[in-house]
Amino acid sequence: MAQTKNQPDLHTPGGFNARIDNGMGAMLGRLTRDRSVVRMLVLLVAAFAFFTLLRPSIFLNPLNLENIAVSAPEIGILAIAMMLAMLTGGIDLSVVAIANFTAITITTLYAGLAAGNPGQANSLLPLILLLGLALAAVAGWFNGFLIGVVGITPILATLATMQILNGIAVVWTGGQTLYGAPEALSVIAKTTIVGVPVLFLFFLLIAVVVAVLVNVTPLGLKLQLQGANPVAARYSGIGSRRVLTSTYVTSGLLGGLAGIVFIARNPTASADYGSSYVLLVIVIAVLGGTNPAGGFATVAGVVLATLTLQVVSSGFNALRLSAYEYSIAQGVILIAVMIADQMRFRSRRRKRDLQPPVPAAPETQGKS
Amino acid sequence: MTSSNPPTGQPGVPVLEVRNISKSYGGAKALEGVSLALQAGHVHCLAGENGCGKSTLIKIISGAERPDGGEIFIDGKPHPFMTPSQAIKEGIQVIYQDFSLFPNLTVAENIVLTSVVAKRSKVFSAGKNRPAAEHIVKELGLTLDLDKDVERLSVADKQLTAICRALVSEARVIIMDEPTTALTHSEVARLFGIVRKLQDRGVALVFVSHKLEEALQVSQDLTILRNGIHVVSGPTTGFDRRSLIKHMTGRAVNETRLITSPQLEERPVLSVRSLSVSGAFHDVAFDLHRGEILGITGLLGSGRSEIAESLFGVLPADSGTVEVEGKTVRIRSIDDAIRAGIGYVPEDRLTQGLFLEKSIADNIIAGSVDKHRRGPILLDSGKVSSSIRRLFDQLRIKAPNVLAPVRSLSGGNAQRVVLAKWLANQPKVLMLNGPTVGVDVGSKEEILAVLREQAGNGMGVLVISDDVPELVTVCNRVLIVRQGAVVDVLEGDAVNGTAIEELMAA
Ligand SMILES: Nc1ncnc2c1ncn2[C@@H]1O[C@H](COP(=O)(O)OP(=O)(O)OP(=O)(O)O)[C@@H](O)[C@H]1O
Ligand SMILES: [Mg+2]
After folding, report:
1. Contact A354 B26 (CB under 8 A)
2. Burial A257-271 (b: 16+ CB within 10 A, else e)
3. pLDDT tens, A31-71?
4. H/E element, A172
5. How far, in Å, CA of B330 to CA of B323, rounded?
6. Residues of chain A numbered 216-235 and touching chain B (CB < 8 Å)
7. Alpha helix locations (H) across B295-380?
8. Percent above pLDDT 90 for chain B
9. What is the tens place of the pLDDT at every residue in B119-177?
10. The whole model's pTM is what?
């Protein structure tokens, strides 16, 4: 028995080598091992089943399902942006403000052009969208500069950016709701491909791109390491300025994309749209397994958490409960999931570590 | 150097005894049926290779881990469910290998915290307990700044703080898990002085160290573990260095000087001239050639670490020039140093070297992410996994697989991961600060062999160390640093233990 601990296959080809060589197998292994993803999946199915049982006719109505699929993308994209910032150990409070700012910019430009010459406005639409995204990227870069170069704490830096952008937006619009967002976007938003709204597919596409970014690019790996231990990252030559700037530019860009989804879904823009989103998006990111201390997150978890909360939201609608009750439910779900985490952690210790241990911080091992 | 042992308790009944302790982590057995008995007034040395279960046994005794099976007795009374606070109340104090200090509290607060727990006080007043902290610092003859936050201390000072914390309360059992890794000879001597005083008071002590001389010198009883299994116990007088190594590793280890004299190219790979950092060192000049292993040694505070930190851009130089392969490089930041081809295995591996919650795989690749690209945006996953596999094998890191978090590794294995990270980067010059601190004798031989091999492949290797036998075994030349200046260079047969020790302390 002397060798039990010194597993013999470690140092010979075969054993673990097979495990890391076999990419697909490793991916699957990781997914099944990834508790936060599994947990969210269970929660999503449970929520769906619950509301189906209570109000089958309303809840299973195709209109209701489509509603979920159309309203999830904007929140989901924002949550993914938030997840990225949290992965580096930071946070991006300005991401909703960036989305709104982009939406307002695009609407103003388009409506202005369309008043004179509708045809020209439509042909210039791609350019206008790009300009909106460019502004979003600049706002993100500004965050990155404050955090990575100047060295301001992320929560304060992005709070400042949020206030600035919100202020500009109110002054610019005079606090009014703007009409006249590009119709072409609304048309695209209403199309479906084999019954699935295009907006939802767009959301999934973004999720996949970010998952690739996080897991199989040098930048993604650096981002995770920067969040896991900034000091060791510095000693490993991971240039934190570049990493942080890229991260916040990316989260800014995602904010911009969310802004485009805003006006596609609802052809108006106003400075106070989505004012309750910031906290909701943080809740979703954490539910999805993002470690607020940095270093661990999964895109799949965040996508599932988004859907779960959307299901709960529309379920509450079906039950004729109010937004306040929905907000209570968010808090309760968050606490319940965190308690489940703790209990599992303790019971595993009691079960004498039958499973490999997890870091003391929230169990957000692995990647999506 | 065994001291007399006038135990105070009733003779025969051990102060603390564990029987048949077993523990496994996720199917891998860390301990299997290990027993240990501590006598009042004795120092019990616990020895064995990296990952053999020493720290695990200690954590079980202190209640930090729960055993799968076995019993714990204090004064002959069974304690089936030991918890950390209970252990402290029973007078068990531990100096953990990773120190387990509170980084955001001051030195004084850290020192008195557990003794307050022991006294079952409800309110914590660091001020009221401060004299106790001052007293122990004075008794150890230290110059610790009691008001500094622990996170801003050097490794050595963190270790001293952990030692003070264990010594400050009236403990009956004091367990020291590698307490001397970062200490100087004089600090070790003072610690041993206190150990003897504690013995006279009837305290039972456990001592773990990979510095075998220390272990043999300070202990009266000895227990050796191998792969989680008890190998042998007995009075220390029955062992010497050779037999200890034999029991630990199951083989004989070669510790003699073994260097090759490489054909030196004319152009050095690293050339340093009149390098100065005010307050740390001045006018340092040396050449390092490809294939050469150069030692830099000196007492703690002599400036030996600062020289390396300066070359790595942590502590940019005030003046002087650095050339890499004949080209002058300006090193103002770590990125500059890495771009110039200089790598550094830092002394404080827990905070500077490792991503503890991340996997071994991520840690190994952390320093060379950009060298594993495929195209402009993607990682070359095939190359990544083959690099990881090669280094995991080459350094014989003991873990169930490469996805295990580094936090689950034993101290010596964690050190190998840091080394692997830099080998993956293949720098032109690799500087290592204490490359084998906390590494067992057998593994030490292996790690030094890896350094020889890397040098043989054309790397320039710089070893910063105060481990004299290690320097003698592996270095072609040794620079002696004293009070911030290079005072001597030893070469060839002049590189021997007595010469180095005399020059260091002179
Ligand atoms: N939390 C953990 N999770 C999984 N495995 C662990 C954990 N802690 C320890 N181990 C494993 O248990 C074994 C014993 O580790 P331990 O830390 O006791 O070794 P050690 O004798 O103190 O070694 P060293 O001299 O390197 O400090 C090792 O194989 C280690 O990887
Ligand atoms: Mg240990």
Report:
1. yes
2. bbbbbbbbbebebbb
3. 444 677 888 899 999 999 999 998 888 888 888 889 899 99
4. helix A154-173
5. 9
6. 216-219, 221-222, 224-225, 228-229, 231-235
7. 304-311, 334-340, 360-365
8. 50
9. 666 666 666 778 888 888 888 888 888 999 998 888 888 888 988 888 888 889 999 99
10. 0.82
Q: Which residue of B has its CA nearest to A363?
A: B357
Ranges of CATH 3.40.50.300 domains, chain B? 270-505
C-alpha torsion angle, residues B391, B392, B398, B403 (rounded to 10): 140
The CB of B410 under 6 Å from ligand 1? The reply is yes
Tokens of B202: 């009837």
Alpha helices in B301-440 (DSSP H): 304-311, 334-340, 360-365, 381-394, 411-425
On whether the CB atoms of residues A258 and A91 are closer than 8 A, the answer is: no
Q: A97 C-alpha to center of ligand 2: Å?
A: 50
pLDDT score recorded for residue A363: 34
Q: Which domains does chain A have, with CATH numbers?
A: 32-345 (1.10.3470)
Is there an atom of ligand 1 within 6 Å of B212 CB?
Answer: no
Q: Which two tokens stand for residue B78?
A: 């069974």
Interface confidence: ipTM more than 0.90: no
Q: Which amino acid, one-letter code, is at A71?
A: S
Asked if the B270-505 domain carries CATH number 3.40.50.12780, the reply is no
Distance CA A73, CA A60 (A): 20
Candidate from B22, B29, B55, B59 with most ligand 1 atoms within 8 A of CB, to mutate:
B55
> d(Cα B45, Cα B178) in Å, to the nearest integer?
11
Query: Does B114 sit in the ligand 1 pocket, CB within 6 Å?
Result: no
Residue A359 contacts B where some CB pair is shorter than 8 Å: yes
Q: What pLDDT does A4 receive?
A: 36
The shortest CB-CB distance from A235 to any of B353, B357, B385 is to B353
Closest-CA residue of A relative to B366 is A236
With a cut of 90, say whether residue B412 has pLDDT above it. no
User: pLDDT by residue (tens digit) across B93-103?
Assistant: 999 988 889 98
Cβ–ligand 1 contact at A357 (below 6 Å): yes
Chain A residues 21-40 with a CB less than 8 Å from chain B: 21, 23
Start-to-end C-alpha separation, chain B: 25
Distance B150 CA to ligand 1 centre (A): 25
Question: CB pairs below 8 Å between A and B: how many?
Answer: 140
- Could you count the other beta carbons within 10 Å of the beta carbon of residue B387? 22
Using CA of residue B74, residue B411, residue B306, residue B272, what is the dihedral sign? positive
Ligand 2 centre distance from Cα of residue B355 (Å): 18
| pLDDT at B81 exceeding the cut of 50 | yes
Burial (CB count within 10 angstroms: exposed 0-12, middle 13-18, buried 19+), residue A323: exposed
Chain B: residue nearest A215 by CA?
Answer: B379
Do the beta carbons of residue B270 and residue B479 sit within 8 Å?
no
- Closest Cα to residue A185, out of A198, A174, A173, A175? A198
- For B107-121, the pLDDT digits (tens) are 998 888 877 776 666
Indicate whether residue A15 lines ligand 1 (CB < 6 A): no
In this predicted model, what pLDDT tens digit does every residue of B416-450 receive, in sequence order?
Answer: 999 999 999 999 999 999 998 888 888 888 889 89
Residue A269, pLDDT score: 87
Contact B379, A217 (CB under 8 A): yes
* B94 token code pair: 């531990």
Structure tokens at A197: 């709204």
Q: Does pLDDT of B66 surpass 60?
A: yes
